[in-house]
Automatic annotation (TrEMBL), chains A, B:
Gene3D superfamilies: Dihydrofolate Reductase, subunit A (3.40.430.10). InterPro entries: DHFR-like_dom_sf, RibDG_C, Riboflavin_Biosynth_HTPR. This is Dihydrofolate reductase family protein. Coiled coil: none annotated. Residues 9-189 form the Bacterial bifunctional deaminase-reductase C-terminal domain.
Amino acid sequence: MAQQVRVQNFTVSADGYGAGEGQSLERPFGAADPGELMAWALATASMPGMGRLDSSRGLDDRLVRDFGNGIGAEIMGAHKFSPHRGPWTDLEWQGWWGEDPPFHVPVFVMTHHERPSFTLSDTTFHFVSGEPAQVLEQALSAAGGGDVRLGGGAQSIRAFLDADLVDQLHVAVAPVELGAGSRLWTSPAELDDRFHHEEVPSATSGVVHHLLWRR
Amino acid sequence: MAQQVRVQNFTVSADGYGAGEGQSLERPFGAADPGELMAWALATASMPGMGRLDSSRGLDDRLVRDFGNGIGAEIMGAHKFSPHRGPWTDLEWQGWWGEDPPFHVPVFVMTHHERPSFTLSDTTFHFVSGEPAQVLEQALSAAGGGDVRLGGGAQSIRAFLDADLVDQLHVAVAPVELGAGSRLWTSPAELDDRFHHEEVPSATSGVVHHLLWRR
């Protein structure tokens, strides 16, 4: 089967924001509270580092555990990797995820600023510039026949949607309003001309899972 | 995380039957029409051998593609492997699945009748007797730290439920009535004392996905 370009478990507010304004080292999601935005995923057994005895193994968990299923590489925006803007001044920064990042595949960080690749556990981070199509070509080739996950944030997913390079999306819409920040959409209906679209509410967490795939 | 014992993508009729009466070589599901019972899965992109351009990549597909996710071994009942009853007389029979079975992990077929193991592509079939707990011990040990899938049919899943050896179930209830055959349950509510239970309807296919996990 042809390699797919997939958005997985990306969470936005009811008004379409993936993060609030004012990202910093202390607040990777800016004004947004990631504990509130991501509560649905944090309550599942398959969330890395979670797996408490009372965790859900229902619908939310099935979607969380699809995160790495068949994935061979990830592309992420620079703001997902770091709160830094401009040329890299601190090469000691290696992302938010500690010594064992939850990716386990090559990660391509989109940035206009050069930086050498590095490896943490089984995840290698590469820093690449260029148009979405060029970055995607590198990721597809590194994926060993697997799919490529678009890891976010909203801006970088938006860039791939605008270039019509996305095959399928799972976006969880959380019952919170942010009002400002990094926006994926005003409404998912914006994509209905190009994507099939199912809405699956989770009674357990209160999020609505939007599953979209190319027409 | 501890190894889980999982039922995945097991489909029953609205009245709880996994197969009709009268299994034969020509009718692996007996009186039941597998094309009707399994229509929801056959319409998805992730169903092995499917992947047509118009296939669904919605909820049904997410659940189909979870089939092998994290699985290290499968246990199946003798009737899933073969329509044969009694001692093996035809060792040329190697299951319904052709040269490349869709399991890709060791498979333990529960039978009272001895038969040597054999391998097709990356799937090895072992033939084992004993109580569910004894068979499970062998499968857990062969799973390399992965989960064990209970592949069905209904009778063998029932035996593991009765022995309280099942951690999670995904059962799709199809909008057909069979009236007789191999029965999983009268109603999933029978399990509510031991399992959390979510019902997730698929608007696309008309099946209701039941997700259950141990309390």
